[in-house]
């Protein structure tokens, strides 16, 4: 009986009683509770942001490792040239 107005006087007259009026129990339709962290709602956006952040951090770590390796290679080459120069 949601959304409809019912005249209680007519219900009482139709049932023949005043205080013994029983309302029929209608099942109420309800939505599932909102959960902002459910997989179907917003996690996909957050998950994508985390994946992008992780990829960026991995790339930065790889770049730092390559830079350190290049610096070590350069120092090793300089040291080798210094040793060869001292021999002569």
From TrEMBL:
Sequence segments annotated as region (Disordered): 1-47
Superkingdom of source: Eukaryota
Full protein name: Uncharacterized protein
Organism: Cirrhinus mrigala
């Amino acid at each position: 009986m949601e959304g409809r107005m019912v005249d209680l006087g007519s219900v009482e007259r139709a049932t023949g009683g005043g205080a013994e009026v029983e309302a029929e129990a209608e099942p109420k339709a309800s939505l599932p509770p909102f959960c902002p962290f459910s997989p179907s709602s917003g996690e996909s956006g957050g998950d994508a942001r985390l994946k992008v952040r992780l990829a960026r951090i991995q790339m930065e770590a790889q770049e730092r490792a390559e830079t350190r390796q290049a610096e070590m290679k350069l120092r090793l080459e300089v040291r080798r040239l210094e040793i060869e120069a001292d021999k002569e």
